[in-house]
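Module 6 notes. Inverse folding takes a fixed backbone as the condition and produces residue identities as the prediction. Think of it as a translation problem where the source language is geometry and the target language is the twenty amino acids. Below is one complete input and output pair. Work through it position by position during the lab.
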């Protein structure tokens, strides 16, 4: 995680900047991104997969600065909406390094993809094939991939498992849907099928399901060659690489994953007499999750029966993950030293429902009180990108820290922003 050091002016720091100072200067709740950590993680991926394309999954978190960092570190980008595409391209991301996903691409999404010239569109359902082909300009040709469901169950929670036929994404390997779609795509002169894609789930800490999926994908590539005489050049194995949200939790070992995937690919291709396709991976969480920290101010402390509730100035509108997936975080006190012994407390948000819990039953100093600051590590992925406007609480600002300086990347949503969107009607 974003490495915390102790700077000269005291208190935990990230990127050489004191977290308490950030809270004072930019107000709370606020999200802090360690630019060095993001870049380092991008480089670790490039080093682990030198022969592959590494595409950052923009859904985890996107901002113009993030786009620049990822571009400069040599990664591609996985997007799934016109919004993500426009932000990326207007921030200077090369469109040919962008891949568009989505199980229900809107006319706006497809229009933006073709206008901006994104590198690949990933076909997710049969009805898309003719739609995309019809949208390609005369004499144009769009590179596409087909998303396959390999029948592998993996992922940290039911809601983020996408490798089996009981969920909405992709085309089934088991019932022949993928094979059928592939032959239809091959029959479209406006579409160029570059390869196959699969994404089996998210927050996966085990290498095994990736290897099983990879073998099945290679098997399908061999069948495509046999049936159509076409050798597909690309295999995108998606993302889903798991990280630890609390000390001691398992995380996917990247070096092991890269080594075993490479070996499995070489072996599978040799057995099938296939040329080794160019591999791609699409990590989101593993690039940005550990590089982010959320800072909150304590607004109220209440003892109810056996429970101590510590209520902060954010909550499920900036982090819906505990409510959605039962994820457990490890908040801690910053900004002052406490000599009080630890006490079990439940950190809750400010929203109007009982399920607005950020961290149940965590150890915090016994003297925690209103005005204190709490930091929640590993907050960089799928928090701000899933933030809502619940209770018309404006979304937090995003601050980047690097080499001892802090700068704002995304400003806080103000009361004025909230008011102005509603035009009265
Ligand atoms: N590629 C595709 C096609 C995806 O659908 C996803 C994530 C990724 C790559 C990146 O997965 P990652 O490496 O970040 O695990 N909101 C949930 C996670 C949803 C993931 C959706 N797809 C959460 O907060 O855990």
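Target side of the pair, the amino acids:
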């Amino acid at each position: 995680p974003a490495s915390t050091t102790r700077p000269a002016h005291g208190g935990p720091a990230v990127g050489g900047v004191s977290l308490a100072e950030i809270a004072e200067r930019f107000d709370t709740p606020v999200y802090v991104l360690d630019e060095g950590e993001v870049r380092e993680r991008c480089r670790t991926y490039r080093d682990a997969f030198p022969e592959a394309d590494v595409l950052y999954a923009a859904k985890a978190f996107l901002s113009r600065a993030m786009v620049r960092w990822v571009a400069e570190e040599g990664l591609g980008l996985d997007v799934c909406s016109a919004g993500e595409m426009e932000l990326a391209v207007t921030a200077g991301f090369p469109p040919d390094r962008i891949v568009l996903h989505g199980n229900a691409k809107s006319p706006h999404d497809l229009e933006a993809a073709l206008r901006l010239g994104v590198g690949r569109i990933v076909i997710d359902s049969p009805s898309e094939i003719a739609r995309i082909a019809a949208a390609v300009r005369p004499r144009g040709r769009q590179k596409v991939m087909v998303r396959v469901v390999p029948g592998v169950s993996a992922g940290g929670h039911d809601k983020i498992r996408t490798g089996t036929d009981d969920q909405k994404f992709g085309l089934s390997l088991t019932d022949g849907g993928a094979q059928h779609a592939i032959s239809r795509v091959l029959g479209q002169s406006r579409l160029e099928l570059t390869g196959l894609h699969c994404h089996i789930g998210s927050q996966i800490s085990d290498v095994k399901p990736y290897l099983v999926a990879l073998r099945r994908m290679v098997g399908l590539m061999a069948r495509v060659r046999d049936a159509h005489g076409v050798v597909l050049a690309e295999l995108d194995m998606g993302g889903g690489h798991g990280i630890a949200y609390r000390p001691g939790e398992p995380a996917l070992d990247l070096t092991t994953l890269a080594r075993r995937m490479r070996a499995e690919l070489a072996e599978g291709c040799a057995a099938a007499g296939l040329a080794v396709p160019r591999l791609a991976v699409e990590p989101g969480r593993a690039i940005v999750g550990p590089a982010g920290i959320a800072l909150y101010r304590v607004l109220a402390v209440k003892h109810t029966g056996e429970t101590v509730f510590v209520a902060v100035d954010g909550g499920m509108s900036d982090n819906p993950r505990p409510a959605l997936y039962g994820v457990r975080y490890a908040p801690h006190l910053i900004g002052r030293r406490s000599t009080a012994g630890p006490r079990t407390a439940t950190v809750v948000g400010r929203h109007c429902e009982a399920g607005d819990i950020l961290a149940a039953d965590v150890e915090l100093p016994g003297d925690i009180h209103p005005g204190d600051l709490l930091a929640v590590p590993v907050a960089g992925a799928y928090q701000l990108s899933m933030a809502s406007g619940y209770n018309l609480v404006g979304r937090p600002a995003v601050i980047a820290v690097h080499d001892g300086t802090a700068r704002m990347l995304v400003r806080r949503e103000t009361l004025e922003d909230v008011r102005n969107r509603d035009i009265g009607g």
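Reference fact for the lab report: The mean pLDDT is 96.
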